[in-house]
Design goal:
With 540 residues, this protein is of the alpha/beta class. Among the domains are: 158 residues, 3-Layer(aba) Sandwich (Rossmann fold); 192 residues, TIM Barrel. A seven-stranded mixed β-sheet has the order 1-3-2-4-5-6-7, sandwiched between helices. Helix 14 crosses helix 18. The chain is globular.
């Protein structure tokens, strides 16, 4: 994606702005929509500006071609998520400084929103946008065009032009996302982002009503959530399906069910409009536990293929300490309800929380085994706890003086980004050293072997046998003598923990190749035989 988005309603542009979504060091599949710069480009276009939209992932040579064009830009904005994109953003800012130092450099996205002071300290960066930027980015354009760049009084916007005092404004509260300008999908090359399987990514909400202490979302938007109206979502889904041939929608909301009534209204609308789509989304166990059997039937009738939820741990005390706002019984009931209605359940577990012990580790392993016994529609994600200093729990961990860590909290961009970029090499200094080795063995061998590779349709019988042994280890909590690692090495088999494999599992759910899931033909037949939305849902 590299094109000029002209001002709406045929107006002469008030100025030109360049928005960049940087590439990653390694190619990642699928190529999801660069939604961050698309919504900002829409807001700026509606305000009368011409916006160059650049997704460097799809056009690696784009930045070199922007050198001349950036000369007369009102500003250049770069959006970054933690990791590779931060490194690339710094390279882009230095390139801009070398060629056009007078053009303001603006940094936004997930990483700058989490660490605004560190990002503002980068010499080549003039402004940092914190949080949702639909309003802030337009205000910045107006201030640069009319008021010499003074951003005093603009919430969520920090920084200044050279040789002026730095302005630090309070964080902008999460505003009603439904009041933002609608994205006109016909103005963007959407087909470039539809996978060969017919899948497209999409956001319908921002924030999360939860309070989890380890999560950066709740830090950025404390217990806040806002979503598009059901009508707006349904209109978008209809455009995706009818115009672009999309058949699977990956909804990237942190919590699609942040407003349960809204989510159910969207499901009813999908059924009423007869939209030929399957969809994948996230749900919190606390919300899932409130749903009735009629609700679940409606969700299934609407084509839900997979729901992801965070169990995180099977220790009640840990659930309380991370403010999960649900108990083990709610998690069990939620997963059981999901699979009972032919929907795949992807359950997340995090190992290595502060206070983790061998007892809590065995509790989580036992629950993994328990949930797997619900059937083939249960899938898992396994993570190690990564303490981001932007979160309440992460800040507490980095303040600890334990093992080789001196209690100092990372402050500069490179050190903060290294937490995300090199988390797999990071010492888990907040737990006992022998326990850390055990956790890494579970995460690096037994769990992905047993529950990723073990259920991959292309896995050989020998590896399936090793996966069964790994699941038996989980059942008994035994990690000693990992002979499976040697055998896998001899067989030249790699443990699949990549994003590509995670996508394969979701795609399998969306295509209903997992045992127990309804096929598209079954869904269409059930919908056709019912006379009303309620009857269509009840038919399932």
């Amino acid at each position: 994606m590299n094109f000029l988005l002209e001002p709406t309603r045929g107006r002469d542009p008030l100025g030109k702005i360049i928005l960049i979504f940087p590439r990653f060091q390694e190619e990642i599949y699928p190529l999801w929509l660069p939604y961050e710069i698309m919504v900002l480009g829409t807001a700026l276009s509606e305000a009368g500006y011409a916006v160059r939209i650049v997704d460097e992932r799809g056009d690696p040579t784009a930045i070199a071609g922007l050198i001349d064009e950036a000369r007369d830009a009102l500003f250049v904005g770069v959006s970054s998520r933690p990791g590779d994109q931060v490194i690339r953003a710094l390279e882009i800012f230095r390139l801009l400084e070398d060629h056009h130092s007078a053009v303001p450099a603006v940094w936004g996205g997930w990483f700058p929103s989490s660490f605004p002071d560190a990002c503002l300290a980068v010499p080549e960066v003039d402004f940092v946008v914190q949080g949702a930027a639909d309003t802030s980015i337009v205000a910045l354009a107006e201030r640069l065009r009319l008021q010499d760049g003074d951003v005093t009084g603009v919430p969520g916007l920090n920084g200044c032009l050279p040789d002026r005092p730095v302005v630090r404004n309070p964080r902008r509260r999460l505003e009603d996302i439904d009041a933002t300008p609608r994205v006109d999908w016909s103005r963007f090359p959407i087909s470039d982002y539809v996978t060969p399987d017919g899948c497209l990514s999409y956001y319908t909400s921002r924030g999360c009503p939860g309070r989890c202490r380890f999560c950066g979302v709740t830090r950025l938007y404390p217990a806040s959530w806002t979503g598009y109206s059901p009508e707006r979502v349904l209109d978008d889904l209809e455009v995706f399906a009818r115009r672009f041939g999309v058949r699977i929608v990956k909804i990237w909301d942190v919590d699609f069910f942040g407003d349960v009534d809204r989510a159910l209204a969207i499901c009813r609308g999908i059924v009423e409009r007869g939209l030929p789509i399957r969809w994948i989304a996230d749900i919190r166990a606390a919300a899932a536990a409130t749903l009735t059997e009629d609700d679940w039937r409606l969700i299934a009738a609407a084509g839900c293929a997979e729901l992801e939820l965070g169990a995180e741990t099977a220790s009640e005390s840990q659930l309380e300490s991370i403010f999960k706002e649900c108990g083990l019984d709610e998690i069990r009931r939620s997963v059981a309800a999901i699979v009972r209605h032919g929907i795949a359940a992807r359950v997340n577990f995090v190992l290595g929380f502060p206070g983790e012990s061998r007892a809590t580790l065995k509790q989580s392993l036992a629950m993994i085994d328990e949930l797997q016994r619900l059937g083939a529609l249960v899938r898992f994600h396994f993570y190690r706890f990564v303490p981001s200093p932007s979160t309440r729990l992460g800040h507490q961990v980095w303040s600890m003086d334990e093992r080789e860590h001196d209690g100092r909290i990372p402050e500069d961009v490179e050190s903060l980004n290294a937490i995300a970029l090199g988390y797999h090499r990071q010492t888990m200094f907040w737990i006992e050293e022998n326990l850390e080795r055990d956790i890494l063995r579970w995460l690096g061998l037994f769990l992905p072997l047993g529950y990723y590779l073990g259920f991959n349709p292309g896995t050989s019988p020998i590896v399936r046998g090793l996966a069964a042994i790994a699941r038996a280890r989980v059942r008994r909590g035994i990690s000693a003598l990992p002979i499976e690692a040697l055998l896998l090495k001899l067989l030249r088999v790699q443990i699949p923990i990549t994003r590509e494999f995670e996508w394969e599992v979701s795609l399998a759910a969306a295509n209903s190749v997992l045992p127990g899931g309804p096929s598209e033909r079954q869904i269409a037949k059930r919908r056709k035989s019912a006379k009303s939305p309620a009857e269509r849902a009840a038919a399932l």
